[in-house]
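Class, study these two lines:
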Amino acid sequence: MTVRAVASSGIVHTRPLPRESVPPFRFIRWHRTRGTLLTKPPEALKDGLQHRTDRCLLVADDKDILVHNLEDAQWQATIKGAAGNTGKIAHVDFGYTPDEVFVLPDFGVKATIWSLPSGRGVEIKDPKILQKAYDYRPTTGHLAILTRPNAHDILLVLTPGTYEPITDMELPTIDAKGLKWSPDGRWLAIWDTASAGSKVLIYTADGQLFKTYLGAKDNDIVELGVKSVEWSPLSGSIAIGDFRENVTILRSTTFSETAFFKHRPTVSSPEAIVWQEEINAAKDRSYIIARQPAITPTHGSFALSGMDSSGISTLGFNMDGTLLSTKSDAMPSTIWIWSLKTSKLAAVIIHHAPVKSIQWHSSVRDLLLIHSATSEPIVHIWRESWDFPQILRPEAQDLGGKLKASWLGTDGDVLRLMLSGTSQCAIGQMTVQGQKIPWQEEHNDNNEISGLGPEDMFDEGNSFDLSPVKISNGHVQDDLLDKVEDTFQYRNQNRILT
């Protein structure tokens, strides 16, 4: 594993990974700054944890997790059999602090929050296996998680660090599909399954039901349910995308409707610019301004077997909450950009291929990265102040499969982004004015590993044996012996919440 600096592309950290990992590592996660360390490590682990910062990352395969600290090349934590005997790891991430690792197995029997200082875990029985079934409160670290021990949905709110239950209540839902804290931590939104109609519950931080949103008030409209929910960055509003290709904006003071955006296959909006991607005979790509009314390609125009064919699947606010980008699965190659200042459509961008992801820049308010599902390594970039959207292509033509694009950061007026595949990655640069800077290709073939080698990093004699969690500080602990492996060992180490 190699970590490079964004500004210079130079290597800042290298780490050998176990060669026996089969299948290869499936997950890699950075810890995102959300709070300070809430727990104090035991004396035996103090030397290994006292220098840890938010420069921590983890990698995981189907069973085991490795946690690394970029500030200390000697420090490493290993969680063996992190999902216990309940299947493979389906989801893994850091908890509120880098001292915690949250694990969901694929069978959904339990969720486990591993504590690196104590080497123990807290098990939460019967969690809902959803991508958005849990969320940490941004300001305090309280964990809200959906469980379903019987025929009813249960909301658990747990204290940070100790994970003691403070809220345990049955929800008035048929089958809740997700929850999300507002960025200021004042509100918790929970949305129900589509068969319940457009139902979103708004709770206060102490667990009181404040508002129930049930969709349009027009009795002639049949509600088809909620598909996506997103808070604005400053918590001033919440966007709700439904299966009728509409987005409703609610103001967070009263949670009353302030804007309503419809997505139609035919775009006719004089105040909006419609951009359409064009490919010439030489396979060069560019954007032209489409004449209105413009027709957007529908789901049936693409071979998208197994994918949803309706509903607003993607919602994204820009950094100050004045612009909203959306994608409808009924028109998968089209991105819509709405102005929250005017409550009107600002731009429509139509591509040749379905859009995989969109991402606003974190410090340039009107800069949007769009990545389409093409076999070519290209990315699309839109900015409100530019004359035309930009299409960037790296010099490397073969980055491997499963391409992903993301912003990296800024250095003055220089913007950086990364396009990665299974075998290589390319770092692209451009100015905030839209001027392209040559790409830098970064090969994944660096074999120079500074410090310890694989046989040193993963020698069992170099680890504290604390149940499945092992903390390595790069030196041998002669006074600690490995325990005999026990299939049910994790049950003796973990505290179970029922």
Q: What stands out?
A: The CA atoms of residues 194 and 225 lie 4 Å apart. The chain is about 5% helix and 40% strand. The two ends are 38 Å apart (CA to CA). The helical segments are 43-49, 454-457, 489-493.
